[in-house]
Amino acid sequence: MTGxxxxxxxxxxxxxxxxxxxPRRVGRYTMALPSRPPVAAVATVSGPMExxxxxxHGIDHxxxxxxxxxPSWELAESRLLVDAAQRCCRKAGLELDQVDVLLAGDLLxxxxxxxxxxxxxxxxxxxxxxxxxxxALAVGLAAVLVDGGYAATALxxxxxxxxxxxxxxxxxxxxxxxxxxxxxxxxxxxAAVLVGGPARxxxxxxxxxxxxxxxxxxIKDPYNMGGAMAWVAADxxxxxxxxxxxxxxxxxxVATGDLAAVGHPMAAELLREAGYEPGxxxxxxxxxxYDRRRQDVHAGGSGCACSGIVFGAGFYPDLYEGxxxxxLLVSTGSLHNKMTWEQGQSIPTVxxxxxxxxxxEEASP
Amino acid sequence: xxxxxxxxxxxxxxxxxxxxxxxILRNVLAAFLVGGLICVVGxxxxxxxxxxxxxxxxxxxxxxxxxxxxxxxxxxxxxxxxLARFAGMGSALPITGFxxxxxxxxxxxxxxxxxxxxxxxxxxxxxxxxxxxxLAALAAAALRYGLVGP
Lengths: 365, 150
Description:
The structure holds two protein chains of two kinds. Chain A contains ten helices and 16 strands. Chain A has helices at residues 48-51, 73-92, 112-121, 134-147, 162-169, 225-244, 260-273, 285-288, 304-321, 338-342; strands at 25-26, 30-32, 39-46, 61-62, 101-105, 125-127, 153-160, 185-186, 189-196, 204-210, 215-216, 253-256, 282-284, 301-302, 326-334, 348-358. In chain A, β12 (253-256), α7 (260-273) and β13 form a beta-alpha-beta unit. Chains A and B meet through β11, α6 and α7 of A and α1, α4, α5 and α6 of B.
């Protein structure tokens, strides 16, 4: 900025370096949420393949028709998001117009699944893109808005669709191509999380949000995204631990988004090197969504809906019942598109973490 | 953060230890089996046309047409990509695979209409094959002309 005469008054608490400390910030990457925003409801919907997976029974609705009766894959994906959002509000006992803000994202160009869904949902809307990390990003930002008092209820929603993703990132759906064993299967489905609402009844709360940085480890293979993202997943987890003074012992489970069979052991190895022993408290949503022995998904699942569905159908019921006391969900994203790959660029990656806690003691019947 | 060349090489090397090897022997066998089977079917069709009195040269064109139609039909029925998942190059290389590479984008692009969709995207996969196939044929013909004359 040049030539502006506007002088800001030094804020209270300004340090010598001139940097104003943010009172709710812990360390360099993490936001602590003192009001511990409650999760009012979670809803998940999916395609048939996810329904046949190990978490199928926990998914609110399994659509057997991958097109959802829509004329295109893109509109089908958008319907998934609308469906999850509506179901989530219904479960929370709220009307859509009682929701203050919608934060949504997906994988398609210009996040059209989300924006088209927002057209139908008719709410103040923030479109987010973090590739497959969008789920944690949306839930985290929803919690921040509620914690800051800027929203009483914030709806975070994500979607992905195997066929719309194939079409945009790879080949037409019916084209016969063999995928390498490191490839992952984009999940068809959507997840919605309503943050806020009556705190009395809350049994699951959000305590911390760690926003990760973008890391490019030079991997260029779009059929090995889990491998490309492993480093950044370990980085965000390490940052979260450093900022909060916690480690694996403080969580019942730390779950990455979609590192799958290649990336997840790599991330575990990196964390071990950094002095954190994951033990049996380290899981990956990409490895939990499908049964890799029965379902031909190669290295595992991926997509925005992957961590969303696994959270909603797997982790959330456990958090709600207290079988999980504390969970760190670390959604991971590959920030490339088909054009950058064709131009020989490597894949920038990102990971965001959200800490959930069971709050059963405060719950009133 | 962006890893420098050395860090990137190191990371790729470490990652390789976690990567499953592609099952090359299984893939080669599957490709041989399915590719061979498609050719046997083609041969049978050729034989059928020849039994009707066609010369091998005359029978080649209708045989190719039958195989292309079969490939297109199996693509439309959603079966060819399932076959390819198992067979790999074995189903991609025969002319049925060529049909698949044209029908698959056509099916998908239909939603964008017949001009901007089907018309513009029909050859997104087969296009490079045709372009470099023609170029390769031209080079081969020029080489032959240079070596043995017309």
